[in-house]
Amino acid sequence: MRAKASLLGTCVLSLPLLLSACGKGPASDAPKPGAGAEEAKSEVAQSKVERGPVRFTVEVAPKQPRLSDEPTLTLTFDCEKGVKVRKPPFGESLGDFLIRGFREPLPVFQGDREILQQVYTLEPTRVGEVRIHPIEVTFTDGRATGDGKEHTLESEALVVTVQSVAGKDAPSLADLKPRAGPVTLPRSGLPIAAWLGGAGLLALAGAGVGLTLWRRRRRAGANEKRLSPEEQAYLELERLLASRLVETDVKLFYVELTGIVRRYLEQKTGLRAPKETTEEFLRDLGRMESFPDADRGRLRAFLESADLVKFAAASPGKAEVEASFGRAKALVGLENPKSQIPNPRTTPEPENLGRSESEPRP
Question: Could you give the count of Cα atoms lying within 13 Å of 84 in the half-sphere of its Cβ?
Fold first, then answer.
């Protein structure tokens, strides 16, 4: 009986050791509180400076946006009551970012301090490290103990890394194969005279049909109002959405979308370059004074992301397609589109890919 009691006591004492061996580690192995907050903080590029009664904070979130994202720039002014802050004015751009939106929340009061904020919505125009230069703020110390003078406060420079739309695994345009050479056609046994006669008849028939169509269009267009480039681009974009082409052939959808933007810019600037590559088209537009500087970065980002889909077999998601469609509407003067794009189909149908040869390769 005593042996049984001793054996039972040994098992009870050994139970904690068995539980520890089964994975119940010490309390120090548990996740530390606040780890999520530190990880979220690392996703924000931040600069904090303080001078006298004013604390100035500049934040860009996320710190590593994609080319299709719209990061936010938040300016926070934390100052004592009686201090008047002159907020920095921005134009249409901030470095290599375009300013797409702006809002100013209501002031918040905490004891004897007042907190003001300005929130800007940005649009990146290129991939890589983008630098935001120091932002200067001016304030006047109007407190009872202040000197009443004007002072200047400047933030530190921030660096934001803009990533490609398709990610690190996106195919490169440098991997494209060169164009194939001409194909030799087999010689026909028909005499040359028969070929010439048939070609002459076809030319006469085509001339007759063309003349008839020209007369009909002339009569029909006599009383019609000529559409402006903006109206024509709007109708073409609406027809492209109604066709739901993005659901069946996303590659052909990008071909049509870039064609609409190219035709619009050709009508607005007088440039005639339907067969130029993306680099040649951007170069010729850059020489024209009538093309705004603010639109050049947006146009480059739009055409380069479209080339990845058309010629490098990239498969964009819904967010990337919507971003490209939004840039197209902005480039043709339609800043606030109400139309929505359906989900694209990731694998295009082979029979629809042949129409992409009408677009020049980069």
Answer: 7
